[in-house]
Design goal:
By secondary structure, the protein is an alpha+beta fold. It contains twelve helices and 18 strands. It has a five-stranded antiparallel sheet with strand order 1-2-8-4-5. The protein starts with a helix and ends in a 6-residue tail after the last strand.
């Protein structure tokens, strides 16, 4: 510990006056002096870990570990666990604890034209091991999950298991998105039942032995928001993340984040001890974390940035980069790759921010509709937090599942307004409350037509005068 801190001083990380006495009391009393550039490097390299820690731990607090929980209804504005959640698919969620033994998840066949299994650990590298468009979920399948640290198992075949997946995190998020087919009530009931029938079975129990009992992990407290972690619990969270995440010796990003934290006293395999780590300037970390988040949200609306990062969004390790991970971790963790779905923000014409003080309309002709092979939706969020805009109607999106009505020419007009205008179908209206809140509408295009996507342009909203209630 002392050797690492002394080395850091020689390259300018610390400006503390080191005495012959032990360094630990000095760190406990003085704030480490870091430049804004150094703090920004730490924040940017940490955002993926902070965002996913919050996602996973909030899920653990709600549902526990190794338990399958399925939504039977679409999410509403009470959902605060993740930014920009879906309102057009049902979720089935599991947070796996892979420390002590492998865990097997038994998935039934699912009668839906869109189902995707997505996985991620604290490092926020994403994978889609099973997808309906590639033949997944046509029949039942048993999937075994483990990590390099799972006790007593090294990837050997298990009789009765169809697929083995090595996870990169001991606490691993595996969840399904499924189109519910709301327009066909009986089919929706079959989809819901299938999601409820997903089973989680530890290997001991799968082999017919009594389920083992293990001590519950001691998690650092998650932040109410991602930004709240940086000034308050950053080092505790990252120490826990590093201890439960696979680090690749030759991966540049893995090694760079470890190098950023070594002078702070945080490294894989250590026990978190507040008396033996650096004391950070909370105000500085809060300020810079907020600046990084603001820049990331702005970048998400930049067409040039969108084009650059889209192929690298929500991809496995080695197939993405830091810029992309920062942007998606801020804008909304846990999405799907571009070949599975495209998430594209819309905006008002002229580039002006959309605000709930105004009303808007988006018009699409038949040829301007999103080129989706499965289905599309348009969902309305608040820009700051990425949460659904609350409204009495609990109407947050327009699309096949939430409902929409095309006009006689096969196009559609979608209104964002405080009052529903005369003659506008209820399905095509996204209600807002009149307030000074910036809005963030987003298209989701499931199984996008790659050829048509090359020329398709995201439609934009027109600002309107206050609308008259019907």
């Amino acid at each position: 510990m002392q050797r690492r801190l002394l080395a850091a001083c020689s390259v300018g990380f610390l400006t503390l006056s080191l005495a012959a006495a032990s360094l630990t009391p000095v760190l406990a009393q003085k704030v480490m002096s870091l430049s804004d550039r150094q703090v920004e490097n730490i924040v940017r390299r940490s955002y993926q870990y902070v965002a996913m820690y919050n996602v996973i731990q909030k899920e653990v607090a709600t549902t526990g570990l190794n338990k399958s929980v399925a939504n039977t209804e679409l999410l509403d504005h009470t959902m605060k666990g993740i930014a920009r959640p879906n309102n057009d698919t049902l979720y089935q969620m599991i947070t796996l604890d892979l420390r002590n033994e492998p865990v097997i998840v038994e998935y039934p066949a699912i009668d839906s034209k869109f189902v995707a299994l997505e996985t991620s650990g604290y490092a926020h590298y994403c994978d889609v091991p099973l997808l309906s468009a590639k033949g997944g979920f046509k029949k039942p399948i048993k999937v075994l999950f483990y990590t390099d640290r799972t006790k007593g198992y090294r990837g050997e075949k298990i009789k009765g298991v169809d697929r083995i997946i090595k996870a990169d995190g001991d606490f691993f998020y595996a969840f399904l998105r499924a189109m519910p087919h709301q327009s066909d009530r009986q089919r929706m009931e079959r989809v819901v039942k299938a999601l409820q029938d997903v089973k989680v079975v530890p290997l001991s129990q799968f082999n017919g032995k009594p389920a083992k009992v293990f001590d519950a992990p001691k998690f650092p407290a998650p932040g109410k928001t991602d930004a709240a972690v940086f000034p308050n619990t950053l080092l505790a969270v990252t120490q826990f993340d590093f201890n439960h995440t696979t680090v690749a010796p030759k991966n540049e990003m893995d090694q760079a984040v470890l190098a950023a934290y070594e002078p702070l006293g945080v490294a894989p395999g250590q026990t978190f001890d507040p008396s033996k780590i650096a004391k950070l300037d909370s105000a500085q970390f809060r300020k810079i974390a907020e600046e990084v988040a603001k820049k990331a949200l702005a970048a998400m609306s930049d067409k040039a940035v969108q084009k650059k990062i889209t192929p690298k969004m929500f991809m496995p390790k080695g197939e993405t980069d830091l810029e992309t991970l920062v942007i998606v971790s801020v804008a909304g963790p846990i999405g799907v790759p571009a070949y599975v779905a495209r998430y594209l923000p819309s905006s008002a014409k002229g580039g002006q921010p959309m605000n709930a003080k105004n009303d808007y309309v988006l018009k699409m002709s038949k040829d301007q509709l999103p080129p989706a092979k499965a289905f599309w939706s348009l969902t309305l969020y608040d820009l700051k937090n990425g949460f659904f805009v609350p409204n009495e109607q609990k109407k947050y999106s327009v699309g096949e599942n939430a409902g929409y009505k095309l006009n006689k020419d096969g196009g559609i007009e979608i209104y964002v307004s405080e009052k529903k205008p005369d003659g506008v179908p209820e399905e095509n209206w996204l209600p807002i409350n009149r307030s000074d809140v910036d809005l963030d509408p987003m298209f989701r295009i499931y199984e996008p037509d790659a050829k048509k996507m090359k020329t398709w342009k995201v439609p934009q909203f027109e600002m309107l005068k206050a609308l008259t209630a019907n």
